Fold this sequence. Notes:
Layout: H1 2-13, H2 20-49, H3 53-74, H4 79-101, H5 115-124
Helix pairs in contact: 1-2, 2-3, 2-4, 3-4, 4-5
Amino acid sequence: MLQNTYKNIINYFLPSSKKTALVDEFHLIIEFLVIAIFFVSSFIVASYIISSKEAMIVFGLTVIFFVVTLIAAKNGVKSTYVKHLFISIACCITVLGITYISGGIFSTAIYWFSIIPILAILLFEI
């Protein structure tokens, strides 16, 4: 049942265009976004448990921007723009925000900066 729900979520946000190449191009980024939303939502819960209001705000904004990106993908925004938006949100809001909140250059979150080039390589097929 959970697998069907996941597939239904992915299929809902795929562009309604009948071009299979366009749908295939968006499929990976839609999956990245859906998984990232669930992943970041779990951090909201963890931040609530440890009473970190700043982290809850940063993660909440991240989820909101990821949902906006999903809606943009559904409404036919070019896949390149959606990919850039996803990487920008991941870098600028999430990683920079959490690194700043948790201690700057001495933060343990600084290692998450390494995921940004990996995302770019995966999404842009470099």
